[in-house]
Amino acid sequence: MSYLRYVKVIGTMHVSPESRENVRELILREKPHGIAVELDRPRFLSIKSKQRMNFGDALKLGRRGFFAYILARVEEKLGEEFGMMPGGEMLEAINLAERLGIPLFLIDEDINLIMTKILNAPVREKLMLLFESLAVFVPVKLEGSDVMREYKAMMMQFKRRYPYLYRVLVEERNEIMAKNLVSIVDSLKMHGVKKPRVVAVVGLGHKAGIERILNSEKEKRFIPTL
Predict the structure, then answer these.
(1) What is d(CA 18, CA 90) in angstroms, rounded to the nearest whole number?
(2) What does pTM read for this prediction?
(3) Which residues, 6+ apart, have CB-to-CB distance to 43 below 8 Å?
């Protein structure tokens, strides 16, 4: 049997109010033994404290800070367009874990490693990403559109245009998050939970890849600890 039977992966759009509602409904329905979110510790602390990097702070960090600042501002603009700031669905999962007393797990790659990899991207991909990101600051009307379906199409286009960044930002993180989810399930089983239920809240672009990896992983057998 595969690990996928123990994990409910919900793919969200980080700036969609509907995603926040979906996360709440799934957690309340599943009553999981663990909740996993697409965050590392620095981003977890940032989202909890609602810290915001200003441009001056970003410049002090050099290229790494500049790219982090640009990506953060792009997400904020998208949040304004869709009616919810980035990470709202993650914060919902965090708050529910605390309120319901469910263990919370941070399963994503460290943001510092991610930024290092982005800085090592081919110059062509970095320049294209910067110029195309600026287009986000132009008001966009999405009334009546299927946002989730359009997001999937955008991910496919991103893979074609940015093969290196797609590998770093999507595929490698899929592998890391799936591995961490396997470890969470194994840990719960070792502590006597026969049929663990884990809800994993990740970006929509990660859902299929993580599920595919979990489905290929063969379940380990454990003798529960007393």
Answers:
(1) 13
(2) 0.82
(3) 87, 108, 111
Query: For 141, which DSSP code?
Result: -
pLDDT tens readout for residues 102-156: 999 999 998 888 878 877 889 998 788 777 665 544 444 444 456 656 767 777 8
Going by C-alpha positions, the residue among 123, 204, 110 that lies closest to residue 162 is: 123
Distance of alpha carbon 127 from the chain centroid: 24
198-203 β-sheet, strand order? 7-12, 198-203, 34-37, 104-106
For 159-204, the DSSP string reads HHH-HHHHIIIIIHHHHHHHHHHHHHHHHHHHTT-SS--EEEEEEH
Provide the phi-psi class of 32: left if phi over 0, else alpha when psi is between -120 and 50, else beta: beta
Helix (H, G, I), strand (E, B) or coil at 35: strand
DSSP 101: T
